[in-house]
UniProtKB/TrEMBL annotation:
GO terms for molecular function: transferase activity. The lineage of its organism: Bacteria, Pseudomonadati, Pseudomonadota, Gammaproteobacteria, Vibrionales. Keywords: Glutamine amidotransferase, Transferase. Pfam families: GATase_4. SUPFAM superfamilies: N-terminal nucleophile aminohydrolases (Ntn hydrolases) (SSF56235). It comes from the Bacteria. Signal peptide: none annotated. This is Class II glutamine amidotransferase.
Length: 52
């Protein structure tokens, strides 16, 4: 099963610390090493990054 990381903030927030741990589990140390991805809103649209 996939793992999800959700974050909501009303001010600009740094997600690097939380995302680094999720990326390690999704790509190397977790039981389901299927890769990782992230999508976020930026302005009027959204951006998506996926690995692999």
């Amino acid at each position: 099963m996939c793992e999800l990381l959700g974050m909501s903030a009303n001010v600009p927030t740094d997600i690097c610390f939380s995302f680094t741990g999720l990326m390690q589990r999704g790509g190397r140390t977790g039981p389901h090493r299927d890769g990782w991805g992230i999508t976020f809103y930026e302005g009027k649209g959204f951006r998506t990054f996926k690995d692999p």
